[in-house]
Amino acid sequence: MKSNWQFLVIALILGFYSWYSVSFEQKVNSTVQVRLETTNQPRDLVVREGLISTIDVVVRGPKSLVRSIDSRKIGYSLDLGALKPGENILNFTPDRIPLKGAVEVVEIKPPRIVIQAEEVARKEVPVTVAWTGNLASDWLLKEKLVEPSKVVLRGPRSMVDKVDRLSTQQIKVEGRTPLMFEDAVSLDVPGDMSVEPAKVKTLLVFGPKTREIWIRVPLVLDRDSAKRITDFEPKEVRLHLEAPLRLINEDRLHEQVRAFLRIDPDVDPGRYTLPFQVRLPEHTTLLKTRPEAVEITVRK
């Protein structure tokens, strides 16, 4: 029992000493930078101007307590629940700054802020593809596709109303004669706005410049078919093609086009009207043939 009384007396003495030290210790002023934390912002409003990230708080208290303040652990909770479109004046009050003990708030700098808020708008806008590259003179973009072709833009109404379309971020196409680019590409969105989805699937298809042309080529027999076909008319055919300019300009198209006859090895002898087949070089399209079929005679 005696030992407990001794500890009690010691505790009372230490408590009195602590109170005395704090109460009569030299008081000092200090400026603490406090981060601003916003709460309850209406979902249909966006802050355009005036919001700051920190405030300076002048505090006063015993020197030891003031020095022990850790600004990283202090935040000012700014309630935006009453925000309305237009100008909003928000005052800072000391009771929202969580300080302990004998430390008090002397001043808050700035004492208030003026916030400009605006209604949030949403709008569906089409997407265009932005790309750059150093293509060969006879090469070009044939097709470009984006999926989805429209996206939903969200942001301040005054900004959203001015946007009629969005572009992808610039795509750099490598090579002089590329064939295709395919990837998910981010959109180029102006500041203070967001978009859904943030990326679109983009497809670019390239190919040579082409021109339509009529050419005349001999009609030849497939090796196996030649053993059974005794006669065919006509001996040459005309082809309407869409072909690369380079092949046409370099006069190499005829040598790469082949028209030939092929029959089923089990076909019975007789006379037939059959279509012929055409083999074309890369990037060449067959548009029309004259004639569309030929007369052949098949022997036993």
UniProtKB/TrEMBL annotation:
PANTHER family, A to Z: CDAA REGULATORY PROTEIN CDAR (PTHR37804)
InterPro entries listed in its UniProt record: c-di-AMP_regulator, YbbR
Pfam family, one: YbbR
Protein's name according to its UniProt entry: YbbR-like protein
